[in-house]
Amino acid sequence: MDDPKTPQQLFAPRVRIAPSPTGWFHFGTARTALFNFLFARKTGGKFILRIEDTDQIRSKKLYEDNIKEGLKWLNLEWDEGPDKAGDFGPYRQSERIDIYKKYLQQLLDEGKAYYCFCSPEEIEAQKQDMVSRGLPPKYSGKCRDLSPETVKQYFKEGKNPVIRIKMPNKIIKFNDIIRGEVEFNLDLLEDIIIAKSLTEPLYNFSVVIDDYLMQITHVIRGEDHVSNTPKQIVIQEALGLPRPIYAHLPMILGPDRSKFSKRHGATALSEYQKLGYLPEAIVNFLALLGWHPVGDNEIMNLEQLINNFELERVQKGGAIFNIQKLNWFNNQYLKLLPREKVFAYFEEYMKKYPRKFDLPNTSHEYLNKVLESEILRINNFSEIFTNSDFFFTKNLHYQKDLLIWKGESEQTTKQALIDASKIMESIPEIDFNSINLQAKFYSFIDNNAFYQQNRGRILWPLRAALSGKSASPGPFEIAEILGKKETIKRIKQAIELI
Ligand code: GLU
Fold first, then answer.
1. Would you say residue 357 lies in a domain?
2. Bridge partners, residue 80, by sequence
3. Most ligand 1 atoms within 8 A of CB, residue of 20, 218, 229, 267 to mutate
4. How many domains does the chain divide into?
C-alpha cells in the first residue's frame, strides 16, 4: 500500500525548514525555507523551524543564530520553532533525545532494528568480499540475528554497537509533487545505521520521528534528499507512522551546470547581506530559482509571491544561479522601493557593517546623498564604496593624464581648472548645490567661446579632479556632496599636479 492519505493531510498543511547548524545559512537552504514559507502562507498552514543539531561536534550556536537572523532578514517569520511557543516542541533536536530513544527501543524490542557490533575493518572486509563476488558492496547483515545472550555478552565486554534497521526486500514507491512517481528498489540498500547508540540517533531516524510528532504534512526539501526518502519511509513503516507528502526541489546549479558551490561565488546568505543586497531582491530571486509564475512579470514582492506560488509549478530540472540576474533584481528594487525604505536599509547596513572613512563629516545624511547619486549605477550597497571611494577618502590617486580632455593640452586643462576653481569660490556656501553650480557653470560656458565649442573642455577636468576616476556621477552632484571646501581643495590639488 503506497502513499496512504493520512488524516493529518486533511487539515491545514504544516511544513518545516530543518537546517543543520553546521555552517553558515546556505543560499540553497534559504530557497527551501522560502518555498516552504510561501506554501504555508498560501494554504493557511504553518511554517515550522526545526534545528537539526544532533551532530554535536559540528553543530554550533553561532550557525543557529546565523540561520535565524537570515530568515528574519528575509522576512520569513516562522510560526513555531526554538524561542517561539508551539505545541510540538522542543524544536531543537538535541533537546529531543529521550523521545528518539523511546522509538529506537521500540524498534529494537520488536526486532525491526538490531545492534550491530561489527567493526569498521570487519565491514570493509565484508564489502571487499562482496565486490570480489561481483555483488554490490553492502553490509552483510551479520548481526541481524544475534541471540539476546550474545548481545548481552558483547555489551558486558564493553563493545559499543550501532543500531541498524532491517531493510525489507521490496520496491518503495512514493508520489512527489514535483517529480511525480518515484520508485526505489530497497534491494540496493543495506541495513542502514539509524543511530550510533540509543542516545545518538542519526538524521534519517530523528527526521522521521520529528516529522511525525510535529504533524508535518508536506516535506518540501532539496533534491539531494530524494535518496533519503525511501530510507525514511522504511523507518516510518517499521513504526507504523503515516507518510507525509513529498516535494523535492530542483538542485541549484552554477552557470556551468554543476552543483552550486563556492567555486561559483558566495554560498552563504550572510555574504550577500554583507555585500549589501536588499532582502526583497534576494527573496524575489530565490523564488525564481526553480519556480516560475504564470505570465511574464518576474518582479514580485513577498505578498505577490504568496498569492502566485504553486508547488505544482516548480520545475524538475536544475535551477541556474545567475548573479547578473540577482544584480538586476537588486537594481530594480533600489529604484522601486520608496526611497525612505532604501535609506533605512542603508542605515541598517552601515550599522551592521561599519566602515572607517578618512574624510570628515561623512554623516548619515552625507551617506544618503552619496547613495542617491549612485543609486542607478550600483548593484548593491558595497559597490558604492568600491566604485566611488572618492566620496570617502581625502587621498585620491590618479595620473594627471586623467584630467586631460581628448585633444586638449596640459595648458588648456590647467586653465580650465583655474576657471572652475574661481567659479566655485564665487558661490556662497549656502548656495553650494548642484542646481546653482550647474547654472553658474553653464552661464560661464555660454559666455566663453572656447568652452562653448566643447563643454567637456572644462567639465571633464573638473569631474576628474573631484573623483579621480574616468567614470563617476556628474561634477556638480559630486561637488554638492563634497561641499565647497573639499571641492576647491581637490581642484587645487589637480592644478598642482599638472
Ligand atoms: N537537516 C537536513 C538538512 O539540513 C534537513 C533535511 C530535511 O529537510 O529533511 O539538509
1. no
2. 48
3. 20
4. 1
Does the C-beta of 52 come closer than 6 Å to ligand 1?
yes
Query: What does the alpha-carbon distance between residue 477 and residue 372 come to, in Å, rounded to a whole number?
Result: 10
Confirm whether 475 is domain-assigned: yes
Span 390-442, pLDDT tens digits: 999 988 999 999 999 999 999 999 999 999 999 999 999 999 999 999 999 99
Q: Comparing C-alpha atoms, which of 340, 420, 349, 334 is closest to residue 379?
A: 334
> Is the CB of 207 within 6 Å of ligand 1?
yes
Return the CATH number at 432. 1.10.10.350
Determine the 3-state secondary structure of 259 from DSSP: strand
Q: Whole-angstrom Cα distance, residue 36 to residue 280?
A: 17
221 Cβ below 6 A of ligand 1: yes
Known catalytic residue at 262? yes
Residue 211 CA, closest ligand 1 atom number:
9
pLDDT digits (tens, 9 = 90+) for 107-141: 999 999 999 999 999 999 998 998 999 888 889 99
Dist. CA 149–CA 102, nearest whole Å: 22
Q: For ligand 1, atom 10, which residue shows the shortest CA distance?
A: 19
Decide if 426 is inside a domain: yes
Calculate the CA 482 to chain-centre distance. Answer: 36
Name which of 193, 211, 187 is nearest 115 in CA terms. Answer: 193
Does any ligand 1 atom lie closer than 6 A to the CB of residue 380?
no
With contact defined as beta carbons under 8 Å apart, do 287 and 34 qualify?
yes
Q: How would residue 38 be classed by pLDDT, with cut points 50, 70 and 90?
A: very high
Range of the domain at 451: 400-497
The pLDDT assigned to 362 comes to 75
204: CA distance to ligand 1 center in Å? 9
Q: Which triple of cell numbers denotes residue 243?
A: 507518510
Is 408 a domain residue? yes
Candidates 60, 84, 156, 262; catalytic one:
262
Cα of 19 vs centre of ligand 1, distance in Å, is 5
Count of residues in the chain? 498
Ligand 1 centroid to Cα of residue 345, in Å, is 31
| Rg of the chain in Å (alpha carbons) | 32
Long-range contacts of 494-498 (CB under 8 A, 24+ apart): 494/403, 494/417, 494/461, 494/464, 494/465, 495/414, 495/417, 495/418, 495/421, 497/400, 497/403, 498/400, 498/403, 498/410, 498/413, 498/414, 498/417
